[in-house]
């Protein structure tokens, strides 16, 4: 492994990051458009290998964490598609696995990785448990999309008179030619998921400024994320002062972090919210290095 070029990939809906290293030296870093979960995931990941090869770097080992993976998306299929780019070994995992490996390494605990979507993963002595990560239609509660969507809902409630005034309505008025036509424009946007998620930043800025509806959204998001973490920890029976990491820009919100922390300790007394050791991209690079028998390995698909 030490003489191979390893390409770590962190693939999310808002963007894809790739980093090629060899013998500890970084050869290349790339940022690519986000993963489309309505298109074939493996094809898109193979394109990442192609993009690296196009920069005159041979991606011998691919270590990937991706959103949108299903049981039919396999490392063997990806290896078959990417061999033409020089790939000879693939480690493929859901992005919750790489987020965990980046945040806590091989230690037990739980991570809540929240960007456009959100997924929680807990690791115990012998098992792992995933909670949520079910996409913007069926889940991703507390995610950037969820917060942005709630902010737009608050804006339209204020517009209709169904809810209190909020700065989110001012944002809609500024960004769209017609408040009542905004939903048509968003629905017609091929990048609507990332676009809705982008409004989370304004929701959380307004929450920090004291906007009532936005503060309520932030508190609800934190509480929902705490519930996901507590549920995952209970499923792996790791309730003895577990380490918990919140990953993603949404945790820059003091309101969300405080709500998560306060609600979590009522659900799992002794839980400790700690800072991540690294990023999900760092975690992807760790996949080939996980020790034999580690619970995370059961969730990593390997093809050679």
Automatic annotation (TrEMBL):
Sequence ranges assigned to domain ATPase BadF/BadG/BcrA/BcrD type in this UniProt record: 60-284
UniProt keyword annotations, A-Z: Kinase, Transferase
GO MF annotations in UniProt: kinase activity
Gene3D superfamilies per UniProt: 3.30.420.40
Pfam families assigned: BcrAD_BadFG
Name this polypeptide is given: N-acetylglucosamine kinase
Provenance organism: Luteococcus sanguinis
Lineage, uppermost ranks: Bacteria, Bacillati, Actinomycetota, Actinomycetes, Propionibacteriales
């Amino acid at each position: 492994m030490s003489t191979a070029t390893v390409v770590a990939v962190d693939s999310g809906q808002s963007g894809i990051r790739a980093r090629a290293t060899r013998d500890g030296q970084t050869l290349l870093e790339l940022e690519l458009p986000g993963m489309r979960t309505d298109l074939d995931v493996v094809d898109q990941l193979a394109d990442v290998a192609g993009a690296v090869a196009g920069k005159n770097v041979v991606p011998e080992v691919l270590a990937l964490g991706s959103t949108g993976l299903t049981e039919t998306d396999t490392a063997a299929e990806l290896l078959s598609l990417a061999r033409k780019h020089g790939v000879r070994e693939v480690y493929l995992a859901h992005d919750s696995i790489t987020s965990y490996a980046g945040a806590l390494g091989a230690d037990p605990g739980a991570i809540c990785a929240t960007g456009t979507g959100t997924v929680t993963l807990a690791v115990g002595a012998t098992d792992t448990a995933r909670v949520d990560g079910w996409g913007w239609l069926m889940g991703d509660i507390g995610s950037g999309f969820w917060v942005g969507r709630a902010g737009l809902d608050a804006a339209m409630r204020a517009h209709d008179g169904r809810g209190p005034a909020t700065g989110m309505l001012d944002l809609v008025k500024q960004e769209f030619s017609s408040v009542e036509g905004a939903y048509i424009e968003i629905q017609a946007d091929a990048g609507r998921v990332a676009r809705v998620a982008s409004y989370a930043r304004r929701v959380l800025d307004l929450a920090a400024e004291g906007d009532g509806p936005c503060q309520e959204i932030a508190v609800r998001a934190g509480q929902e994320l705490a519930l996901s973490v507590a549920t995952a920890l209970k499923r792996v029976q790791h309730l003895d002062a577990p380490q918990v990491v919140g990953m993603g820009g949404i945790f820059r919100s003091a309101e969300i972090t405080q709500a998560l922390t306060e609600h979590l300790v009522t659900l799992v007394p002794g839980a400790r919210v700690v800072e991540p050791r690294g990023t999900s991209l760092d975690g992807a690079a760790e996949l080939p290095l996980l020790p034999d028998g580690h619970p995370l390995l059961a969730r990593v698909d390997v093809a050679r």
